[in-house]
Amino acid sequence: MLSLNIIGAGKVGRVLGRQFVQHRVFQLAHIVTRSVLTAQQAIAFIGGGVAVSDATKLVAADVTMLTVPDDQIASTCAQLAALGLFKPGSIVFHCSGAKASTELHAASATAALVASVHPVRSFADPAQVAANFAGTICSVEGDAAALAVLISALQAIQANVVQ
Fold first, then answer.
1. How many CA atoms lie within 13 A of 134 on its CB side?
2. Which residues pair with 119 in a beta bridge?
3. What is the β-pairing status of strands 137-142 and 63-66?
4. CB–CB of 120/93 below 8 Å?
5. Which of 154, 152, 12 lies closest to 73, judged by CA?
6. Mind listing the pLDDT tens digit of every residue in the chain (163 residues)?
């Protein structure tokens, strides 16, 4: 089972994290949010993972999911790349509905595989969304090898994947 780090576990990150853990898609490794308290709250919601106080304490994972605000995707990715957290063949994806996988150019420069996953629904009530996630449309784009893993993962959590 591939390991997963979640960077920015807000509503979308929590819902997807819970789905991936409950369906045994990824082994949740670390969660980084703006504070250890919110990371611990995310862990309680998701049902797994280890809270990390900041990115400098992260250990590289097979898959990294960025669910940070859109205007922080590129800079967060660059920070993680500078810390050596992406390896050739590792997968890095974000969940912005407005940005493409090109926002992850710092990860691409390390030979990591990049993609974006755009769940098409409101995440206002994460518990309700998590309980009724099946059938959620998820539009994807990015590197073919990353998409092969992510499409399989999304299908395992019963998403309706659109390329």
1. 3
2. 138
3. unpaired
4. no
5. 12
6. 999 999 999 999 999 999 999 999 999 999 999 899 999 999 999 999 999 988 999 999 999 999 999 999 999 999 999 999 999 999 999 999 899 999 999 999 999 999 999 999 999 999 999 999 999 999 999 999 999 999 999 999 999 999 9
Distance of CA 82 to the CA centre of its chain: 19
CA dihedral of residues 73, 5, 117, 113 (deg, nearest 10): 80
Could you tell me if 115 and 147 are in contact, meaning their C-beta atoms sit under 8 angstroms apart?
yes
**Dist CA 114 CA 135 (whole Å):** 24
Torsion of CA 33, 35, 19, 58, to 10 degrees: 60
